[in-house]
Design a protein that fits this description.
heterodimer, A: 443 residues, 2 domains, 6-stranded mixed beta sheet, 4-stranded antiparallel beta sheet, 16 helices, 10 strands, 16% strand, elongated, B: 339 residues, mainly alpha, two-stranded antiparallel sheet, 9% strand, disordered C terminus, binds iron/sulfur cluster, MetI-like (chain B), cell membrane (chain B), transmembrane helix (chain B), Binding-protein-dependent transporters inner membrane component (chain B)
Chain lengths: 443, 339
């Protein structure tokens, strides 16, 4: 196995809201947005590591922090043995030459007032490489290499198509002969037909120049052909990382499985789908769920010891509980729909909400618990309603924060192999389960 | 910095817009007049001729206010004397109360207005853009501090601020020998100096830079989030590199448009200052208006002619500003894009 070129260790980037002078004077609590929440991985020399996640999962922040375009709030990045966040002066300059970024937006990544030639030679000009004549020659060569023609050197970005602009952006990243390129969603903004061409170009250049790539995308299908390994990100954390083929053939984390399900694949028959695709929105990184951050949407949410419901039923009840906890159910509106302004007919309220939330029958015991919760809700007591459900349906996934164990293909899910400390915590939790303390699992 | 495409836009907008042509024509005439005033003016603008005071413009009638009273049939009758001028073209726009030629004065007055407009705006642009881009690019505390200061400046009425500053600094001005007179191209009877009203220029710049700072800051704020700025930083570009190479060029269009508007505003401010007697300029449209104010009822032309000159200059410059705005705004490259 080749050596790592880039090692990311427990990288953390929080943004703080309510952090202006005024907020501090008024004593408003500062709120952390956990864009990148403790991420560790390495990029090996000559490989392509794909990083995949929905928008807002922190993958772009990860890229920018890793390149030190933003200062991290914790953790470290090592580039070929050098600690990136401690570099300065000539060492920093060297890093800025050896590592480059290619950006996502074909429109805003190129300065509209510079010609293609000026854009491509900008890194050379910054580092004072060559005379302006030499730099121009270099730009012409690069234009040819990325599939444009040298006589387009004096054109402005608006005279190129989206795909051509991305080629120019790539030529700029190549100009100074880097070893490592962060590709920040380089084809997301392009048509599918153009995507393939640009991806091929990226792959060809990598082979030709021994480049190492960190390839960021929001779509698994894009990284499949170019990546050697893939890391899947969710809410600022890596939930699974492993060799590309294994990720696609044998995904371990429910989130990865769901992502794969949502990618239309020719070789999967509709009926073969075993896992429901993910529902609901990504929770806010301001207030990530306790325990496993995927638990609010996880189709395989683990049931507490002693409970053995059909998974769909358990998931339905859990989602209902999340709605109550988040205050997503409008009690006033529901009463209006029931048509009882005096709010006396609680049973009508229960039926109405029960009807709306579950489209199937529930086993008797569950029916009873759910109705009890709804009755509390009808009285306007959201806390009791939530507590009633929490009592019976508390999943280990909300108490234990899964981690990413060592190994070639780890995943951060309690269903899979977990690091020692997580296993221990889970055992303790299960031992305690029979006597849950009130409020121990508040979200 | 000006791309061929921008030039193309300017040209096509110009051919489309009659008003733009008009604006350029007006400004060209004023500019020409200002530069060649010693050659074009029929008289020395400072030469007094009390025998020929208060002559109205060619073809106009003036009513002398010197009334004589007569006894007619036992009643007092007031007779007003009517004077009809002008059979000669010696004073085509008449003379003022001291017999100075109004046309010549207005021609020379253009020099003061344009000098103040040009230099005042340039200084304001440099000052405002430096502050604004620094604030917008760095953001945070620097931004807060600079922009709070700018807001305070804005809170003062500009005329009051200007007068206060002049009171503080006095009226310094620089006399530059007029090359046309020095080299003997123009008659040596013309004033031999061009007066550069230094204090006034500094003051109008200080009063107006805030506008540029605000616009430049807004532009810098939006440009700094563009990916090409991130890209330049990821390549190792210094702040100075990023500002000079990316932020400034991409902020320039609205600043340019604002500059044309501010030239007009500054010319007006200079006139107000001269009118109020604060600028110390003796050959200026505002000064002439102040002089003519006392004679408005009898000799309206003394104030009206320079007044019309101000209007023409302001309108002309604003038309050019509109042209620039229309030509450059859709020309912010990157919106349309090639297919
Ligand atoms: S830990 Fe639980 S909630 Fe998280 S992914 Fe695994 S099963 Fe789903």
């Amino acid at each position: 196995m080749t050596d790592p070129l880039v090692t990311v260790d427990d990288l953390e980037k929080y943004y703080y809201e309510n952090d202006t002078l005024l907020d501090r004077l008024t004593g408003a609590e500062r709120e952390a947005v956990r864009a990148v929440d403790g991420v560790s991985f390495e990029v090996r020399e000559g490989e392509t590591l794909g990083v995949v996640g929905e928008s807002g999962c922190g993958k772009s922040t990860l890229a920018e922090t890793l390149m030190r375009l933003r200062e991290p709030t914790g953790g470290s990045v090592t580039f070929d043995g050098d600690p990136v966040f401690d570099l300065s002066g000539t060492d920093m300059n060297a890093f800025r030459r050896r590592a480059q970024v290619m950006f996502q937006d074909p429109f805003s990544s190129l300065d509209p007032r510079m010609t293609a030639g000026e854009i491509i030679t900008e890194p050379l000009a910054i580092h004072g490489v060559g005379t302006s004549g030499e730099r121009r020659e270099r730009a012409e060569t690069l234009l040819d290499e990325v599939g444009l023609s040298a006589d387009q050197i004096d054109r402005y970005p608006h005279e190129f198509s989206g795909g051509q602009r991305q080629r120019i952006g790539f030529a700029r990243a190549l100009a100074i002969d880097p070893e490592f390129i962060v590709l920040d969603e380089p084809v997301s903004a392009l048509d599918v037909s153009v995507q393939a061409q640009v991806l091929n170009l990226l792959a060809d250049m990598q082979a030709e120049r021994d480049l190492t790539y960190l390839f960021i995308a929001h779509d698994l299908s894009v990284v499949r052909h170019i990546s050697d390994r893939v890391a899947v990100m969710y809410l600022g954390e890596i939930v699974e990382i492993g060799p590309t083929e294994e990720i696609f053939e044998d995904p371990k984390h429910p989130y990865t499985k769901a992502l794969l399900e949502s990618v239309p694949r020719a070789d999967t028959d509709e009926r073969d789908r075993t896992v429901e695709t993910i529902r609901g929105d990504v929770p806010s990184p301001r207030n990530p769920p306790s325990g496993c951050s995927f638990r609010t949407r996880c189709p395989e949410l683990i049931q507490p010891p002693g409970l053995d419901l059909p998974q769909a039923t358990f998931r339905g009840i859990s989602e209902f509980r999340t709605r109550i906890e988040n205050g997503d159910i409008d009690v006033d509106l529901r009463w209006e729909q029931v048509g009882d302004p005096d709010r006396e007919d609680r049973e009508a309220f229960v039926d109405s909400l029960r009807e709306e939330a579950f489209d199937t029958e529930l086993p008797d015991a569950e029916e009873e618990t759910v109705s009890e919760a709804i009755r509390a809700l009808a009285d306007g007591d959201r806390e009791t309603a939530a507590a009633t459900l929490r009592e019976r349906y508390r999943s280990p996934c909300e108490a234990i924060d899964p981690g990413l164990p060592a190994g070639e293909h780890p995943s951060a899910c309690l269903l899979n192999e977990q690091p020692e400390d997580v296993e221990t915590a889970r055992e303790e939790w299960e031992a305690d389960y029979e006597a849950p303390e009130a409020g121990a699992s508040s979200r | 910095m000006i791309s061929p495409r921008t030039l193309r836009n300017l040209r096509s907008e110009l051919s489309r817009s009659l008003l733009a042509k008009l604006g350029i024509a007006i400004l060209a005439v004023i500019l020409f007049t200002a530069v060649f005033a010693p050659l074009l003016a029929p008289h020395d603008p400072t030469e007094q001729d009390l025998d020929n005071a208060n002559i109205p413009p060619l073809g106009f009638t003036a009513t002398e206010n010197q009334t004589t009273s007569q006894m007619v049939d036992g009643e007092v009758q007031i007779v007003e004397e009517e004077v009809v001028v002008n059979t000669t073209v010696a004073h085509p726009l008449g003379t003022d109360s001291l017999g100075r030629d109004v046309l010549s004065r207005t021609m020379f007055g253009a020099r003061t207005s344009l000098l103040v407009g040009l230099f005042g705006t340039s200084i304001a642009v440099v000052l405002g853009v430096t502050v604004g881009i620094t604030a917008g690019y760095y953001g945070g505390r620097i931004d807060d501090a600079l922009m709070r200061f700018a807001d305070v400046m804005l809170a003062f009425p500009s005329l009051v601020l200007a007068i206060a500053l002049i009171g503080l600094w006095g009226q310094a001005s620089l006399r530059i020998p007029d090359p046309l007179v020095e080299l003997g191209i123009a008659s040596s009877e013309m004033p031999s100096d061009i007066v550069l009203p230094g204090t006034v220029i500094a003051v109008v710049a200080l009063v107006n830079w805030v506008w540029f700072a605000r616009v430049a800051r807004g532009e810098a704020l939006s440009v700094r989030d563009q990916e090409y700025v991130k890209a330049a930083r990821s390549m190792g570009g210094s702040d100075l590199h990023v500002i000079l190479r990316h932020v400034l060029p991409n902020s320039l269009t609205p600043i340019l448009v604002l500059a044309t508007i501010q030239v007009a505003a500054i010319i007006l401010l200079e006139s107000s200052l001269s009118f109020l007697g604060f600028s110390g300029a003796q050959l200026s449209w505002g000064f002439d208006i102040a002089q003519g104010r006392d004679y408005l009822s009898s000799s309206w032309w003394i104030a009206t002619v320079p007044g019309l000159a101000i209007v023409a200059a302001v309108v002309g410059i604003n038309l050019i500003g509109d042209w620039l705005r229309d030509a450059l705004d859709p020309g912010i490259e990157g919106q349309g894009g090639a297919p």
